[in-house]
């Protein structure tokens, strides 16, 4: 495995990440992104299906007949943080309620798109209430909360009635601009790398299996979920015969942890408790065997799709891996090597290529 060149697949992952990141998909508003993921898997020669809930389920490999009842489910999510209109103010500005863990501290001054139900998309900006520092001497002291920031529409709006005439209603989705950029040094910066970067990695994994005709050691499915950010993305759609599920999500990078954006992270424990010791041990062995640059960390404030799967009552072993991502739930950053090392680990864990 150390001698296998994954450069073309890493480039594919980076290109797919940019493509997926360009499609707005706050949790609860994910149909367009799910349709894109379906098309991308189909273009690789697979037969994805949309779940009733709106996710994407696809079988990637059959594995040997003797392993038919020992399947592996890889879970990633395409839903992101965002907002929803909770009130139209008397001046036509919009108050938000958050979708997922969107934080007003790093939402402020971001461009947004307000998706009305029947009147198209309106542009705007998330601003502090009374955002002009030259007239607001409390600007620095104001605590950023969803009650102290607002959406200013880029329309001639001065009243609630003006906003309503444009089609704005309570419950409309507010999408924040991702601002995706890939640097010459290989970094990818964007909102919502959590978890669209790993959705792209699963596509790269699928592309490798198909183009190289690599045989996996067991059946493998992928489930791209759409409600992870609110805790129930992985609660269903587990195929028969699956005995293990691994979330392919973002790896945490920050003070007290060892992972960098260039590595694949293996999570031993998060706020939901320890991951399967056997799975963590086997993932670590696969990383060692394949030469994947990895770190093992404990995430103090984190939950994953696979924990939702367990919480729904499925009898599974579980694990969590992903490329290192800095500034989670903000303007996030990772690196092409984080993608490559995650792909290398997935291949090493599910095939005999390195043995």
Helix-strand blueprint:
Blueprint (H helix, E strand, L loop, with lengths): L6 H15 L9 H13 L5 E2 L5 E6 L9 E7 L4 E7 L5 E6 L4 H4 L3 E5 L5 E8 L20 E5 L6 H6 L7 E4 L4 E2 L4 E4 L2 H20 L7 E6 L16 E7 L2 E3 L10 E7 L2 E2 L2 H14 L3 E5 L6 H7 L5 E10 L5 E4 H15 L5
Parallel strand pairs: 3-12, 3-13, 13-18, 14-18, 15-17
Antiparallel strand pairs: 1-2, 2-12, 4-5, 4-9, 6-7, 6-9, 7-8, 10-11, 11-19, 15-16, 15-18
Verbal overview:
There is one protein chain. This protein is of the alpha+beta class and 355 residues long. Helices cover 26% and strands 28% of the residues. The chain is built from 8 helices and 19 strands. The chain has helices spanning 7-21, 31-43, 104-107, 160-165, 193-212, 277-290, 305-311, 336-350, and strands spanning 49-50, 56-61, 71-77, 82-88, 94-99, 111-115, 121-128, 149-153, 173-176, 181-182, 187-190, 220-225, 242-248, 251-253, 264-270, 273-274, 294-298, 317-326, 332-335. Strands 1, 2, 3, 12, 13, 14, 15, 16, 17 and 18 form a 10-stranded mixed beta sheet that branches. A 6-stranded antiparallel beta sheet has the order 5-4-9-6-7-8. Strands 10-11-19 form a 3-stranded antiparallel beta sheet. A hairpin with a 2-residue loop joins β15 and β16. α1 (7-21) crosses α8 and α6 crosses α8. The longest helix has 20 residues, at 193-212. It starts with 6 loop residues before the first helix and ends in a 5-residue tail after the last helix. The relative contact order is 0.20.
């Amino acid at each position: 495995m150390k001698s296998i060149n994954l450069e073309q697949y890493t480039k594919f992952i980076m290109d797919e990440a940019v493509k997926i990141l360009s499609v707005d998909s706050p949790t609860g508003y994910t149909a367009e992104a799910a349709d894109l993921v379906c098309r991308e898997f189909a273009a690789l020669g697979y037969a994805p299906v949309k779940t009733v809930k709106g996710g994407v389920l696809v079988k990637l490999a059959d594995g040997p007949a003797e392993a038919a009842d020992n399947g592996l489910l890889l879970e990633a999510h395409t839903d992101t943080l965002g907002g929803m209109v909770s009130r139209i103010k008397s001046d036509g500005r919009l108050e938000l309620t958050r979708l997922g863990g969107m934080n007003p501290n790093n939402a402020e001054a971001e461009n947004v798109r307000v998706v009305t139900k029947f009147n198209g998309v309106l542009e705007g900006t998330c601003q502090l209430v009374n955002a002009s520092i030259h007239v607001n001497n409390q600007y620095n002291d104001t605590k950023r909360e969803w009650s102290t920031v607002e959406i200013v529409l880029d329309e001639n709006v001065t009243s609630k009635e003006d906003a309503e005439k444009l089609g704005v209603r309570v419950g409309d989705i507010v999408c924040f601009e991702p601002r995706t950029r890939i640097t010459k040094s290989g970094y990818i910066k964007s909102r919502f790398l959590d978890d669209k970067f790993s959705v792209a990695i699963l596509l790269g994994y699928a592309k490798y299996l198909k183009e190289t005709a690599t045989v996996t050691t067991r059946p493998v499915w992928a489930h791209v979920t759409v409600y992870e950010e609110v805790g129930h993305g992985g609660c269903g759609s587990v195929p028969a015969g699956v005995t293990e599920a691994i979330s392919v999500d973002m790896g945490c990078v920050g003070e007290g942890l060892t992972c960098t954006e260039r590595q694949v992270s293996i999570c031993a424990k998060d706020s939901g408790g320890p991951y399967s010791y056997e799975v963590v041990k086997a993932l670590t062995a696969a990383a060692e065997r394949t030469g994947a640059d990895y770190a093992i960390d404990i995430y103090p404030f984190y939950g994953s799709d696979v924990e939702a799967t367990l919480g729904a009552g499925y009898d599974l072993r579980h694990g969590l891996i992903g490329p290192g991502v800095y500034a989670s739930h903000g303007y996030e950053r990772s690196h092409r090597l984080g993608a490559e090392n995650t792909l290398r680990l997935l291949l090493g864990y599910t095939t005999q290529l390195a043995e």
